[in-house]
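Shipment paperwork, digital attachment
Item: protein structure file
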Amino acid sequence: MKSFTIYQDGDHRWVAFGQDPDKPEEIIDTNQFVVTSSDTGCLLDPGGAELFPDMVAALSREISVDTIQHLFLTHQDPDVSSAITLWDEVCADGMKIYISWMWKGFVKHFDNAARFVDVPDEGMDLNLGGGVTLRAMPAHYLHSPGNFSVYDPKAKILFTGDIGAALVPESEQGDIFVQNFDHHIQFMEPFHKRWMVSARARDAWVAMVRNLDVNILAPQHGLLFKGDDVQRFLDWFGNLEVGNGLSAYQQYT
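Attachment content:
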Protein backbone atom coordinates (compact mmCIF):
# COMPACT_ATOMS: atom_id res chain seq x y z
CA MET A 1 0.00 0.00 0.00
CA LYS A 2 1.26 3.45 -0.94
CA SER A 3 1.52 6.39 1.44
CA PHE A 4 1.44 10.10 0.59
CA THR A 5 2.23 12.94 2.98
CA ILE A 6 -0.25 15.63 1.95
CA TYR A 7 0.50 18.11 4.75
CA GLN A 8 3.25 18.64 7.31
CA ASP A 9 4.02 21.43 9.74
CA GLY A 10 6.35 20.14 12.43
CA ASP A 11 4.69 17.16 14.09
CA HIS A 12 1.31 18.06 12.58
CA ARG A 13 0.95 15.71 9.62
CA TRP A 14 -1.66 14.28 7.30
CA VAL A 15 -0.69 11.04 5.58
CA ALA A 16 -2.93 9.31 3.02
CA PHE A 17 -2.75 5.55 2.38
CA GLY A 18 -4.20 3.79 -0.65
CA GLN A 19 -3.67 2.59 -4.21
CA ASP A 20 -2.79 -0.83 -2.83
CA PRO A 21 -1.49 -3.04 -5.69
CA ASP A 22 -1.79 -6.16 -3.51
CA LYS A 23 -5.46 -5.86 -2.57
CA PRO A 24 -7.87 -8.55 -3.81
CA GLU A 25 -9.21 -7.66 -7.25
CA GLU A 26 -12.90 -7.44 -6.31
CA ILE A 27 -12.34 -5.19 -3.27
CA ILE A 28 -12.88 -1.48 -3.88
CA ASP A 29 -9.76 0.62 -3.39
CA THR A 30 -9.98 2.90 -0.34
CA ASN A 31 -8.09 5.83 1.08
CA GLN A 32 -7.20 5.84 4.76
CA PHE A 33 -5.80 8.90 6.54
CA VAL A 34 -3.82 9.48 9.71
CA VAL A 35 -3.54 12.89 11.36
CA THR A 36 -0.80 13.39 13.95
CA SER A 37 0.09 16.11 16.43
CA SER A 38 2.09 16.05 19.67
CA ASP A 39 2.71 12.28 19.50
CA THR A 40 -1.03 11.64 19.17
CA GLY A 41 -2.56 10.06 16.10
CA CYS A 42 -6.09 9.85 14.75
CA LEU A 43 -7.04 7.37 12.02
CA LEU A 44 -9.85 8.50 9.74
CA ASP A 45 -11.88 5.66 8.17
CA PRO A 46 -9.18 3.09 8.93
CA GLY A 47 -10.38 0.56 6.35
CA GLY A 48 -11.81 -2.93 6.19
CA ALA A 49 -10.56 -6.19 7.63
CA GLU A 50 -9.29 -7.50 4.28
CA LEU A 51 -6.90 -4.55 3.93
CA PHE A 52 -5.77 -4.46 7.55
CA PRO A 53 -2.41 -6.29 7.12
CA ASP A 54 -1.28 -3.99 4.31
CA MET A 55 -2.64 -0.90 6.04
CA VAL A 56 -1.01 -1.54 9.40
CA ALA A 57 2.30 -2.29 7.66
CA ALA A 58 2.11 0.96 5.67
CA LEU A 59 1.15 2.96 8.76
CA SER A 60 4.03 1.47 10.74
CA ARG A 61 6.47 2.84 8.18
CA GLU A 62 5.22 6.37 8.95
CA ILE A 63 4.49 6.40 12.70
CA SER A 64 4.42 4.12 15.71
CA VAL A 65 1.03 2.40 15.70
CA ASP A 66 0.72 2.64 19.48
CA THR A 67 0.47 6.44 19.18
CA ILE A 68 -2.99 6.05 17.61
CA GLN A 69 -5.40 7.15 20.33
CA HIS A 70 -8.44 7.90 18.15
CA LEU A 71 -10.31 6.17 15.31
CA PHE A 72 -12.93 8.27 13.56
CA LEU A 73 -15.54 6.50 11.43
CA THR A 74 -17.41 8.85 9.13
CA HIS A 75 -20.15 6.26 8.65
CA GLN A 76 -20.91 2.56 9.09
CA ASP A 77 -19.83 0.87 5.86
CA PRO A 78 -17.65 -2.26 6.18
CA ASP A 79 -14.85 -0.71 4.11
CA VAL A 80 -14.70 1.89 6.90
CA SER A 81 -15.36 -0.09 10.05
CA SER A 82 -14.91 -3.86 9.74
CA ALA A 83 -11.29 -3.84 10.99
CA ILE A 84 -11.93 -1.97 14.23
CA THR A 85 -11.38 -5.01 16.44
CA LEU A 86 -7.96 -5.53 14.80
CA TRP A 87 -7.00 -1.89 15.27
CA ASP A 88 -8.10 -2.07 18.90
CA GLU A 89 -5.53 -4.83 19.45
CA VAL A 90 -2.52 -2.93 18.07
CA CYS A 91 -3.19 0.73 18.89
CA ALA A 92 -2.77 2.62 22.15
CA ASP A 93 -4.47 1.32 25.28
CA GLY A 94 -7.70 3.19 25.83
CA MET A 95 -8.09 4.13 22.16
CA LYS A 96 -11.50 5.66 21.43
CA ILE A 97 -13.64 5.02 18.37
CA TYR A 98 -15.87 7.87 17.24
CA ILE A 99 -19.03 7.23 15.23
CA SER A 100 -22.52 8.66 14.86
CA TRP A 101 -24.71 7.83 17.86
CA MET A 102 -27.17 6.11 15.51
CA TRP A 103 -24.62 3.59 14.19
CA LYS A 104 -22.88 2.60 17.42
CA GLY A 105 -25.24 -0.27 18.20
CA PHE A 106 -24.72 -1.69 14.70
CA VAL A 107 -20.94 -1.31 14.52
CA LYS A 108 -20.66 -2.92 17.95
CA HIS A 109 -21.37 -6.17 16.13
CA PHE A 110 -17.74 -5.96 14.98
CA ASP A 111 -16.37 -5.26 18.48
CA ASN A 112 -18.66 -4.89 21.47
CA ALA A 113 -15.75 -4.32 23.85
CA ALA A 114 -14.35 -1.28 22.00
CA ARG A 115 -14.54 2.18 23.59
CA PHE A 116 -17.06 4.00 21.45
CA VAL A 117 -17.81 7.72 21.60
CA ASP A 118 -21.17 8.91 20.28
CA VAL A 119 -20.89 11.74 17.77
CA PRO A 120 -24.03 13.93 17.95
CA ASP A 121 -25.82 14.99 14.78
CA GLU A 122 -24.34 18.50 14.92
CA GLY A 123 -20.79 17.11 15.14
CA MET A 124 -18.05 17.71 17.71
CA ASP A 125 -14.42 18.72 18.15
CA LEU A 126 -11.59 16.25 18.70
CA ASN A 127 -8.47 17.76 20.26
CA LEU A 128 -5.18 16.12 19.26
CA GLY A 129 -2.97 18.49 21.24
CA GLY A 130 -0.36 20.90 19.96
CA GLY A 131 -3.07 23.35 18.94
CA VAL A 132 -4.62 20.89 16.47
CA THR A 133 -8.36 20.27 16.69
CA LEU A 134 -10.33 18.19 14.22
CA ARG A 135 -13.92 19.26 13.67
CA ALA A 136 -16.55 16.63 12.81
CA MET A 137 -19.17 18.32 10.65
CA PRO A 138 -22.57 16.98 9.53
CA ALA A 139 -22.81 15.26 6.15
CA HIS A 140 -25.99 13.31 6.81
CA TYR A 141 -27.67 11.47 3.90
CA LEU A 142 -24.51 11.80 1.77
CA HIS A 143 -24.87 8.87 1.61
CA SER A 144 -25.43 7.58 5.15
CA PRO A 145 -28.15 9.08 7.40
CA GLY A 146 -25.50 9.28 10.12
CA ASN A 147 -22.49 10.65 8.27
CA PHE A 148 -19.74 13.22 8.91
CA SER A 149 -16.96 15.14 7.24
CA VAL A 150 -13.82 15.98 9.25
CA TYR A 151 -12.20 19.41 8.96
CA ASP A 152 -8.74 20.46 10.10
CA PRO A 153 -8.74 24.29 10.16
CA LYS A 154 -4.98 24.49 10.66
CA ALA A 155 -4.08 22.20 7.75
CA LYS A 156 -7.08 23.45 5.72
CA ILE A 157 -7.98 19.87 4.82
CA LEU A 158 -11.51 18.48 4.67
CA PHE A 159 -11.90 14.71 4.81
CA THR A 160 -15.21 13.98 3.11
CA GLY A 161 -15.68 10.21 3.30
CA ASP A 162 -17.73 9.10 0.29
CA ILE A 163 -18.39 12.64 -0.93
CA GLY A 164 -16.01 13.18 -3.83
CA ALA A 165 -15.32 9.45 -4.10
CA ALA A 166 -14.28 8.03 -7.46
CA LEU A 167 -13.67 4.52 -8.76
CA VAL A 168 -10.39 5.18 -10.51
CA PRO A 169 -8.88 2.40 -12.65
CA GLU A 170 -5.34 1.37 -11.78
CA SER A 171 -4.10 2.74 -15.10
CA GLU A 172 -5.20 6.22 -13.98
CA GLN A 173 -3.52 6.04 -10.57
CA GLY A 174 -0.11 7.37 -9.64
CA ASP A 175 -0.34 10.80 -8.13
CA ILE A 176 -2.79 11.09 -5.22
CA PHE A 177 -4.27 14.35 -6.56
CA VAL A 178 -6.62 14.94 -9.47
CA GLN A 179 -4.65 16.31 -12.42
CA ASN A 180 -7.47 16.96 -14.89
CA PHE A 181 -10.85 17.64 -13.28
CA ASP A 182 -12.94 17.30 -16.43
CA HIS A 183 -11.33 13.94 -17.23
CA HIS A 184 -11.87 12.80 -13.63
CA ILE A 185 -15.64 13.36 -13.70
CA GLN A 186 -16.24 10.06 -15.50
CA PHE A 187 -14.85 8.14 -12.51
CA MET A 188 -17.04 9.83 -9.88
CA GLU A 189 -20.28 10.74 -11.66
CA PRO A 190 -22.00 7.30 -11.65
CA PHE A 191 -21.14 6.83 -7.98
CA HIS A 192 -22.53 10.21 -6.92
CA LYS A 193 -25.71 9.93 -8.97
CA ARG A 194 -26.58 6.63 -7.29
CA TRP A 195 -25.18 6.90 -3.77
CA MET A 196 -26.03 10.53 -3.00
CA VAL A 197 -29.79 10.54 -2.61
CA SER A 198 -30.78 13.93 -1.18
CA ALA A 199 -30.45 17.18 -3.11
CA ARG A 200 -31.49 19.07 0.01
CA ALA A 201 -28.69 17.50 2.06
CA ARG A 202 -26.23 18.08 -0.80
CA ASP A 203 -27.14 21.76 -0.99
CA ALA A 204 -26.74 22.20 2.78
CA TRP A 205 -23.35 20.47 2.76
CA VAL A 206 -22.04 22.48 -0.21
CA ALA A 207 -23.15 25.74 1.44
CA MET A 208 -21.42 24.71 4.68
CA VAL A 209 -18.16 23.81 2.93
CA ARG A 210 -18.11 27.06 0.94
CA ASN A 211 -17.80 28.85 4.29
CA LEU A 212 -14.65 26.91 5.18
CA ASP A 213 -11.07 27.63 4.14
CA VAL A 214 -10.20 24.39 2.31
CA ASN A 215 -6.98 23.75 0.39
CA ILE A 216 -7.46 19.98 0.07
CA LEU A 217 -10.69 17.99 -0.17
CA ALA A 218 -9.91 14.36 0.60
CA PRO A 219 -12.44 11.58 -0.16
CA GLN A 220 -12.28 7.97 0.98
CA HIS A 221 -12.06 6.57 -2.56
CA GLY A 222 -10.07 7.77 -5.56
CA LEU A 223 -8.06 10.94 -5.92
CA LEU A 224 -7.90 14.09 -3.81
CA PHE A 225 -8.79 17.64 -4.87
CA LYS A 226 -6.55 20.61 -4.15
CA GLY A 227 -6.45 24.30 -4.97
CA ASP A 228 -8.96 25.40 -7.59
CA ASP A 229 -10.24 21.84 -7.97
CA VAL A 230 -11.91 22.13 -4.56
CA GLN A 231 -14.26 24.81 -5.90
CA ARG A 232 -14.63 22.94 -9.18
CA PHE A 233 -15.85 19.93 -7.25
CA LEU A 234 -18.31 21.99 -5.19
CA ASP A 235 -19.69 23.59 -8.36
CA TRP A 236 -20.01 20.21 -10.09
CA PHE A 237 -21.55 18.40 -7.13
CA GLY A 238 -23.86 21.31 -6.39
CA ASN A 239 -25.46 20.99 -9.82
CA LEU A 240 -25.53 17.20 -10.13
CA GLU A 241 -28.83 15.32 -10.37
CA VAL A 242 -28.65 12.78 -7.54
CA GLY A 243 -30.71 9.77 -6.47
CA ASN A 244 -30.99 8.07 -9.87
CA GLY A 245 -31.84 4.74 -8.19
CA LEU A 246 -35.33 6.12 -7.59
CA SER A 247 -36.11 5.49 -11.26
CA ALA A 248 -36.43 1.76 -10.44
CA TYR A 249 -39.81 2.50 -8.83
CA GLN A 250 -41.33 3.87 -12.02
CA GLN A 251 -42.53 0.52 -13.39
CA TYR A 252 -44.52 -0.07 -10.19
CA THR A 253 -46.19 3.33 -9.91
